[in-house]
Every structure is written in C-alpha cells, then in structure tokens.
Amino acid sequence: MSSSESLTRRDALFAGPAAGAVLAAPSASASADDRPPAVAAPANAKAVMVTLRLSAKNADAFKQHLLEVIPVTRLASGCRYSHSYQHTRTPGEFLLVQGWDSLEQQQSYIAWRQARGDLAQFGAFLASDPLIETFDLFDA
C-alpha cells in the first residue's frame, strides 16, 4: 500500500458503514425522531478543564480516588457533567473536564470541598498546582 493509500488517523476514525456519507441538517419539518434530543444550557454555562500532574508514580491510587470523588461532584448543584481522562503516554497526567451552569456554582462546590478538607487530600497526589482553565459556551 502506498503512502497515499494508507489511512490517516482521521480517515480511520471516520471509516465504516457511514464513511463518505454526507451529514445533512434535519429540515424544519423533520420529525422528532430525526433530531438529536435538545438539552438547553444556560447562556452563562461554563466548561472547566483541570490538568493534574501527579507527584507519585502510582496513578492507580489517584484513579481510585477520582472514582470515589467524581460521582459526588456530578451531584453538585449546577454540575452538568464531570469526565476524567488519563493521558495516553504520560500516566501521571490527568484531565478533568466539567460543565457547570455558572462559575459561581463551581466555586461554591470548590469551597465546600475546601471546608471538608478534601482539597488537601487531593493535593497530596499532585506534583504542582492544578492548571484550571475556564471556557465560555457558544453555540456552534
């Protein structure tokens, strides 16, 4: 197979039964079954991304910790989702991606965790302060 015939990662990702199919937006008269479910997000919704670098070599212990605390995070007022990712090549690096209705709700949740002492326990795993980035939702 020549290099021009080899699949790129993107090609491989999109290869399959629908490869080559054109995605069309449903018409205004399309039935509800032809449309994805609508989930309204508040105009001020925020995505929060937290990058964590571990000091310990035992990433499994940190993963176990996340398995215990993230389900509670998802119950917090204003939390729409919280997903945890482990870096593919650097197992001591994690990414938390969370959606919040507002920064005030996210900050209230962090204050609650701080008051309980949870952040000190969390910080014991880390080599450095977490990198916390906030993104505004826009409709695309």
Task: From the structure above, extract its key features.
140 residues; Alpha-Beta Plaits; 4-stranded antiparallel β-sheet; 4 helices; 29% helix
Give an overview in words:
This protein is α+β, with helices and mostly antiparallel strands and 140 residues long. It has a domain at 46-136: 2-Layer Sandwich (Alpha-Beta Plaits), CATH 3.30.70. The chain is built from four helices and four strands, in the order H-E-H-E-E-H-H-E. It has helices at residues 9-14, 59-73, 103-116, 118-123, and strands spanning 46-53, 79-86, 93-100, 131-136. A four-stranded antiparallel sheet has the order 2-3-1-4. A hairpin with a 6-residue loop joins strand 2 and strand 3 (93-100). It is globular and about 50 Å long. The two termini are 38 Å apart. The model is unreliable at 1-26 (pLDDT under 50).
Tally of separate helices: 4
CATH class of one domain: Alpha Beta
The proportion of strand residues reads: 15-25%
Based on the structure given, which CATH architecture of one domain is correct? Answer: 2-Layer Sandwich
Order of neighbouring strands in the sheet with most strands: 2-3-1-4
Termini Cα gap? 38 Å
Secondary structure tally: strands: 4
Q: Provide the low-confidence segments as ranges.
A: 1-26
**Structural class designation:** alpha+beta
Order of helices and strands: HEHEEHHE
- Here the CATH topology of one domain equals Alpha-Beta Plaits
- CA radius of gyration is 20 Å
> Could you report the average pLDDT, rounded to the nearest whole number?
75
Shape: globular
Largest sheet, in brief, is:
4 strands, antiparallel
Helix content class: 25-40%
